[in-house]
Automatic annotation (TrEMBL):
It is a single-pass membrane protein. Its main location: membrane. Keywords: Disulfide bond, Glycoprotein, Membrane, Self-incompatibility, Signal, Transmembrane, Transmembrane helix. The lineage of its organism: Eukaryota, Viridiplantae, Streptophyta, Embryophyta, Tracheophyta. Residues 1-19 form the signal peptide. Residues 13-136 form the Bulb-type lectin domain. This is Bulb-type lectin domain-containing protein. PROSITE patterns: BULB_LECTIN. It is found in: Membrane. The keyword DNA-binding does not apply.
Length: 489
């Protein structure tokens, strides 16, 4: 009797949801409670909800280690749910009952669902055949052993990732502009492909396989390739910034470590800063700004949403001018290259765009080629850096007001910064912290550098003044250089 009771208690303590199929009629409610989840047999993966950055919003997802989303049908409010209907369809709904997403497997003979140890969520029929699976309908992540074939795509906002029939990987903006491409195999082999498949291996190698070629062709490797294969989970993710990355997570952990990135220079991602947005680096951080005071941000709290003209071109016909942006290149990728490319000089490049009512921007490649690109449609995505040899121009309504023609000159800005430093010195009882004064003067010098790309953000200025970050010696502002030249002469 005691043995029987002990066995019964043991059975009651087991979590059969981790090994039994998920029956029709099952429902998961939007909640952070991990007790309301569907688990894989090894418990490494779960179907659950996690809160998003937006209060009251929850992401429905297949999770690794209860934290890392590897597939998601979407987000719902706090009253939403994921339902496995008795009709055989998997449906994500909001609190109002409105459908956010549906598997489309209604009346297809589905009898149950199951989450496998690979992280693949299945809908199966009575004969155990697969009717639908998450691996066949990826969202923005590929996990090890998940085949990624032609016709499938990863999506994140306006960005998408594709495998072509020729065996190439592409990143696209708006499903049209190809801003990154990588050939996986040589041209001789690509003509013989029948059904290429891209796979991320557990050891961190991403490669392509095709039955007609019969070999695995290595394409990319994570920086931790081959390390801790049994204790590390790797996944490839298309993020909202348009970049494709491989991450590694220790099993049971939450810290995601980037081990590979497709576009090394984030500013080269098309549309990263939105329409008319210019991407530049503040230290190592890509930041977005408007081209000049002729433009204003669409959302001052999110510069990645781009900018708009203060006065639209339709409202100033006959009074347009060209705003020149030095060390700036408007990104131009296929299919734009073939239709908007010309060989022109600097002035002709600008003049042709100004005279053409359809042209609203131009870029002259300062590499000796004399190539001029003109933007006639689509989005203007710019990249600004002292190392960029190109000059770009935007058509705006006069007066043309570049940032370089600010009201205060370098001399006046320098005087103002020094006055502030002196005022601070005058108000410290009887003790003067000369180290702090030095930091203030050096920070003010950094703020008035000739090139805007060399000027620190306000957050970085605060860190400089507080001594949180080490401050390099700034270049002498133009005003001081002029004073020294006068004294030397």
């Amino acid at each position: 009797m005691a043995i029987a009771l002990t066995f019964l208690l043991l059975l009651l303590s087991l979590d059969f949801s981790s090994s039994l199929p998920i029956p029709l009629g099952s429902t998961l409610h939007a909640s952070s409670d991990r007790n309301h989840s569907w688990y894989s047999p090894n418990s490494a993966f779960s179907v659950s909800f996690i809160p998003t950055a937006t209060p009251g919003s929850f992401l429905s997802a297949v999770l690794f280690s209860n934290t890392v989303p590897i597939w998601s049908p979407g987000t719902v409010d706090s009253g939403g749910s994921l339902r496995l209907l008795r009709s055989g369809s998997l449906r994500l709904v909001n609190s109002s009952g409105a459908t956010v997403w549906e598997s489309g497997s209604e009346n297809e003979g589905v009898t149950s669902a199951s989450l496998e140890d690979s992280g693949n969520l299945f809908l199966r029929s009575r004969k155990n055949t697969t009717v639908w699976s998450s691996f066949a309908h990826p969202s923005n992540v590929i996990v090890p052993t998940q085949p990624f074939t032609v016709g499938k795509s990863l999506r994140s906002g306006s960005y998408s990732f594709h495998l072509t029939e020729e065996g190439s990987l592409n990143l696209k903006w708006n499903n049209s502009v190809v801003y990154w491409s990588q050939e996986l195999i040589n041209n001789n082999s690509s003509s013989n492909l029948s059904s290429p498949s891209f796979v991320l291996e557990r050891n961190g190698v991403a490669s392509i396989f095709d039955s007609s070629v019969g070999v695995m062709v290595v394409s990319v490797r994570s920086s931790d390739y081959g390390e801790g294969e049994e204790g590390v989970f790797r996944f490839l993710k298309l993020e909202e910034d348009g970049n494709l990355r491989i991450f590694s997570v220790s099993k049971g952990g939450e810290i995601q470590t980037q081990t590979w990135v497709a576009v090394a220079d984030q500013c080269q991602v098309f549309g990263f800063c939105g329409n008319f947005g210019i991407c530049r680096y503040d230290g190592f951080v890509p930041t977005c700004e408007c081209p000049s005071v002729n433009f204003v941000p669409i959302d001052v709290n999110d510069m990645r949403k781009g900018c708009k003209r203060k006065v639209e071109l339709e409202d100033c016909r006959g009074n347009e001018g060209m705003l020149d942006l030095n060390n700036t290149r408007f990104l131009t990728y296929p299919p734009e290259l073939s239709t908007q490319r010309f060989t022109l000089g600097t002035e002709a490049c600008r003049a042709n765009c100004l005279a053409d009512s359809l042209c609203f921007a131009s870029v002259l490649m300062a590499d000796g080629s004399g190539v001029c690109f003109q933007k006639l449609s689509g989005l203007v995505s710019g990249y600004k850096s002292p190392s960029v040899p190109s000059t770009s121009s935007l058509k705006v309504c006069k007066p043309v007001s570049p940032y370089s023609t600010v009201e205060k000159s370098d001399e006046r800005l320098l005087i103002r910064a020094l006055i502030i430093a002196l005022v601070v010195i005058a108000t410290r009882d009887e003790t003067v912290d000369m180290e702090q004064v030095t930091r203030m003067v050096q920070a003010s010098f950094w703020c008035i550098q000739k090139h805007p790309s060399q000027r620190p953000s306000m957050g970085k200025v605060v860190q400089m003044l507080e001594g949180i970050i080490e401050m390099a010696k700034p270049l002498a502002p133009n005003a001081l250089a002029d004073i020294r030249d006068t004294e030397n002469s």
